[in-house]
Amino acid sequence: MDRRIDALDVLRGAAILGTLGTNIWIFTDPAGPLAFLSFGGDPGVVEAFLRFLSNGKFLGLLTLLFGVGLELQYRSAARRGVPWPGRYLWRAALLLVEGTLHFVLVFEFDVLMGYAITSMIVAYLIGRSDRVVTAWMAVAGTLLVTMVGLVTLALLAAPPGGAGAVAYPRSWLDQVRLRLDNLLVFRAELIFIVPLGIVLFLLGARLLRAGVFDERGARLRGRLMAVGLGVGVPLNLLTSFAGPAWFMVDRYLMAPLVALGLLALVTSIVLAMKGEPGVLRRGLTDVGRTALSCYVFQNLAAGLLCYGWGLGLATRFDELRPWWVPVAWGGICLMFMVASSLWLRRFGRGPLELAWQWAYQAPFRTRAAAGR
């Protein structure tokens, strides 16, 4: 039986809070996600650097961890002699429903829908031969690079200045209507997330098998840090300041490379720690244990803080941008570290995790009851 991997909870917590580090720039813009889609304007050196610290890296890290989780689910099914993918497809379907609700009700750039679709594909690849897995990774990676390259060429050829963002609706109902009316536009990122997810899901599974999360993986972690941090960070820094036309390369190619280095670095730090975990590690661990709840609710909290139907700080503090944005991010992170720790004192799972587990087990409980 696989023992619990302590580093995974810390990594999940860092990835969840790190994705907010990217999303917070959307929430705090008076034009909201519409500014993100305009590809226009110069954010300035300070904001560009602050965005560089999180953009795409923690999305890549979270995607790798989904692959690790899928591999662990596969191992569990194999140990129990349960058909695979079997019930896992029901798990993926529930994730798709949850992601759809998150998209419609909370946030335009939900990643759960993409992960659900990707997991349905990768579930049939886990456990296949190395040759088959490598072929799928190569095809998906080539498709991703090709699409990113074509979009980048189009952006380079476009007139400077971008399309210009229009006003984002103030009311929650109007925001919901905007998402539904522009479904294809807001969900276009799935075209990139799915092939990226196939590569990183399968890579995460391979890294788990190679022992990256235990002592025998020290050399592998060293190589990942050399490539991800030594090579990936300078390249990522370059694309971050190269202008909006290089956004796709920055987010979908360079940032996932850095994510590999982050995975290795955080794992090495956790393995080197002795004694009781400190406050920061406990906070990250608790967020990691309630990852789904924290991901959804931190976006809801950011919307409440920034949008017109809440406190409306995006408009009120626009002149303080970018300085107030990291403060908002830090405050939300601290709130969820504390909230997740308090919640876990009484419950074994996060609130959405509990609801999800109930929904997952419901049809099988009904079937078992009918058979009695």
Automatic annotation (TrEMBL):
Keywords: Membrane, Transmembrane, Transmembrane helix. The keyword Transmembrane helix applies. Coiled coil: none annotated. The keyword Transcription regulation does not apply. The chain crosses the membrane at residues 7-28, 48-68, 88-105, 111-127, 134-158, 184-203, 224-247, 253-272, 292-311, 323-344. Residues 208-359 form the DUF418 domain. PANTHER family: INNER MEMBRANE PROTEIN. This is DUF418 domain-containing protein. It comes from Nonomuraea gerenzanensis. The lineage of its organism: Bacteria, Bacillati, Actinomycetota, Actinomycetes, Streptosporangiales.
